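Morning F.,

Quick status update on the modeling queue. The single chain you submitted on Monday has been processed. Sequence for confirmation:
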Amino acid sequence: MRSTIRLVVKALVICSLFSVTLVFAQDKQDKQGSRNAEVINVAVAANFAAPLKAYAEQFSRITGIEVNVTVASSGTLFAQIQHGAKFDVFLSADTARPQALIDAGKVHKDNMYQYAQGQLAFVYASDISPHIDAKPHKEEPYKEESIYLYKLVKQVTTTGSGKLAVANPLLAPYGEAAKNTLTHLDIWDEVQPSLVVGKNILQAYQYFTTGGVKGAFIAYSSVNIDSTVNTSIPNIHVIRVPEAFYQPITQALVINSNSKAVITPNVFNTLDTSDTKGVEHLTELTILPSHLFVQYLLSDAVQSSLPRWGYKRSVSAKASNEKASSTKSSEPT
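Structure tokens below.
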């Protein structure tokens, strides 16, 4: 009898333990499923669309979080957010519009971060400069560069259709940089009748690639050496416009929330994505998906890869990562 009771008790204990194990496994599976089902909506300025989509895909593979991307000019996206568009993160091509959202009380004052430094380029077809000697771009001397670029712009506006493409300076920071450059060259008023204005930088570039214009001011990222779009355009010449010709293109993002975002410490700076256990740890974090995505964009790995896309890494992102690293190393062990 006692033997039978012991067997029954043992069986109940085993069943209980098995039940607890199943509950724990189901709970972990539910957490994973919940994280995998999460979606964030990201609005990005047209110039940064290609790298953002690539980074979003990488982020989704690592975390299981889906990223929906909307592309338009900074001005258009800014207006949409002002009218209630539900974007979780807004990546502008400037700092003015994210700051304006903060000033208007739309988002928390600490939710703006610089994520990249943009560069302006001038592209032109090879047949517009038969009398201008091509030469490698030089940062110095600026006077010499001004004369050369001035001649190219003049040639574009007097050849074929005589049209020059730029993004809308009122909507796109790269369009504003183009206006800065043409003003620096003392030719802005003169070229007004020749301008074809795109609603964003991608449209301005499209006018050039489809042959509608012989020259355009665009984001250097659109035609940098690692960009796939460059390979489909024969006889294209690219000049990286000296940065002294236009106001710095500091690109900032904002997390669209009135609550302060959790950005540091940056979990991706210590995460080994080849370590399955390390990646699974992300599912246990209580950080909001939008905050996690911004951490990824500001991580050392992403920032270090920006030159491939024709950008400089953000100074503030580098400083933020160094500060977090310093803080961590100074903690008592």
